[in-house]
């Protein structure tokens, strides 16, 4: 296993809960700890609060109960260090009037970073996700679904985040493209080692990518199991044809069914 990246931000949840207006409890008593530079997948049934957990970590909403620590320091509610957070949504959410490079540059513009460094940062991020220079000047409608997702990933990576949050980013893609992007994501994570938290419905995808898998119960979401994945990196598509991989997928699937019963 890759060594822990102690320079990356930790994420620690202590009995975190989220109750929305109207009384719907999406997450209840969720506790977990993710070390700096770890790759952790979160699996669970639809509506169990997986995306809500990511949004709380990202600071898009505050927990209604418990303590959530993101980075260094501990306090009631949410504590945030200075580390940057990148978020990749299921839908690429690209601005249609902007080119690929202009979409990727948006976080740098919002940070009011120096203009001189933006172009090199954008070019580096696009190259990291495997997009050619010719693609940088295209608008989203000129790009395939897979290329749009690569632009979305580059946009999340352009600030070199300490924490990378991914909310089912490959769920709408075909199997071949999904595998290609799984491999690209693994390569990027190994190169930069952010703390990666990956939400997916696909147990096979979770086992293929992650060091650990958090299994979430149906709503209200609780952490039912924390599974360590034993495979070494780098992982290759041939791994999926092994009996060891099938057994690991079967174990996590059984835990998922048990959590839902």
Overall pLDDT score: 89
In the CATH hierarchy, what is the class of the largest domain? Alpha Beta
Name given to the CATH architecture of the largest domain = 3-Layer(aba) Sandwich
CATH fold-level assignment of the largest domain: Rossmann fold
Structural class determined from secondary elements: alpha/beta
- The backbone outline, from C-alpha atoms, is globular
Task: Name the CATH superfamily classification of the largest domain.
Answer: P-loop containing nucleotide triphosphate hydrolases
| Percentage beta strand | 15-25%
How far apart are the first and last residues' alpha carbons, in Å? 33 Å
Element order, helices and strands? EEEHEEEHHHEHEHEEH
Number of helices: 7
Q: Going across the major beta sheet, what is the strand order? A: 6-7-8-3-9-10
- Give a short account of the largest sheet: 6 strands, mixed
Count of all domains: 2
Kindly provide the radius of gyration, computed on alpha-carbon positions and rounded to a whole number of angstroms: 18 Å
Instruction: Please give the share of residues in helix.
Output: 25-40%
Overall number of strands: 10
Low-confidence stretches: 73-82
